[in-house]
Amino acid sequence: IVGEHEQQAIDQLARCLDHDDAVAGAICADGHLGYLQPVGGVVAYREHISVSGVGFDIACGNLAVRTDMPFSAAKPHVGSLLDQISARISFGVGRVNDAPVEHALFDDDDAWNAADALNLREMARRQLGTVGAGNHYVDLFREVREGVADDDSPVWIGIHFGSRGLGHKLATLYLKRGGGREGIDVPPTLLHQDSELGRKYLAAMELAGRFAYAGRDWVAATVLDILGACSVDEVHNHHNF
Fold first, then answer.
1. Sign of CA dihedral 226, 229, 230, 234
2. Phi then psi dihedrals of residue 58, to 5 deg
3. pLDDT tens-place string over residues 123-138
4. SS3 (DSSP) at 112
5. What is the pTM of this model?
6. Angstrom distance (rounded) from CA 52 to CA 27
7. Are 158 and 137 contacting, i.e. CB atoms less than 8 angstroms apart?
8. pLDDT in tens, 30-84
9. What is the signed CA dihedral for 102, 105, 110, 114, rounded to 10 degrees?
10. How far apart are CA 75 and CA 80, in angstroms?
């Protein structure tokens, strides 16, 4: 346990470790109460994966794209550019893309069958490229080099969202199939990695992760089109499964 934490979060960690195949667990300095497992906490299990620990917004993360547009070219038009982004990209819970996107992911029947997710494919197709709510965003940034940002500094596109409704529905499905339930003070739901259910769950998480990356890539391409710019560099990261 690193840092000071409320007892309820520590109790969550202890509950997660109350399993024969639990190896170790930790709460980091920024940890706090979560659903079933503390946020900022990690638990290792032998040959098991915790549906509760992975969570619901699969492959939620960031994509940063450095463009060839200097800040001087964007500065007079920032308001208009952001208005165009808001008009072409859908933000909010449960939103669908006004222009459904064709993507090779939707032709990968094996992946959808392995995840037992065929019934979710059309919903996912309609949502690809939507951003969601909360702390998810699409924004424009100016690069700072050695503490200096000038008119020649390149514009970056910043994007943050994950697997949208597809990831949430798949995570909820396998939580229930594993005999678990949502809540704060309930035991975690664990699946053996080599069980049929465990293999299907892993396939579902891989599918949801691919969906999240495809969505961020589409949004980046759309914003580049709005800017009339090209991509010079990209940086991906994600902060769960």
1. negative
2. -70, 135
3. 999 999 999 888 899 9
4. helix
5. 0.92
6. 15
7. yes
8. 999 998 899 999 999 999 999 989 999 999 999 999 999 999 999 999 999 999 9
9. -120
10. 10
